[in-house]
Amino acid sequence: MTEFTPFASLAGGVLIGISAVLLMAWEGRIAGISGIAGRLMPPYLDGAFLPRLAFVLGLVIAPVVYSAATGSAVLQTVSANLPLMGIAGLLVGFGSVYGNGCTSGHGVCGLSRLSVRSLVATLTFMATAFATVFVVRHMIGA
């Protein structure tokens, strides 16, 4: 069962919101992680490469900094089923390309800009996530 963590979730949400606002204010860019990560590859090797790399490295390094600061490990459950993980990764990648963005781009930045396209995208991936959790927890019995 998933633990309810309202204060940690609120703090994380506030930090995500602040970072999205700062990126928009300073760079004029949407904080869509799939777009930022995707532009680390050619042909996008331009003057914005280092800020993009720093953004992605910050995502990777943050749990290490958290563990060092608090002395407690970051717990994350990931499936050991590698074929399933590969298929899931491909589906998420396809979805973010097909939907012109990911949860951070549409759900955080798009909704705050009152984008109808982002509202539709967010409702679609949230409904899919709810259905997936329901099927896995109640129908498959995982």
Please tell me about this protein's structure.
By secondary structure, the chain is an all-alpha fold. It has one domain. Helix content is 71%, strand content 0%. The N and C termini lie close together (11 Å).
Write the element-wise H/E pattern from the N-terminal end onward.
HHHHHH
Number of domains: 1
Write down the Rg. Answer: 17 Å
Helix content: over 70%
Q: Which band does the percent of strand residues land in? A: under 5%
Give the CA-based shape. Answer: globular
- How would you sum up the major sheet? none
Supply the number of helical segments: 6
What distance lies between the first and last C-alpha atoms, to the nearest angstrom? 11 Å
How confident is the prediction overall: mean pLDDT? Answer: 86
Number of strands: 0
The low-confidence parts are none
Query: Structural class given helices, strands, pairing?
Result: mainly alpha
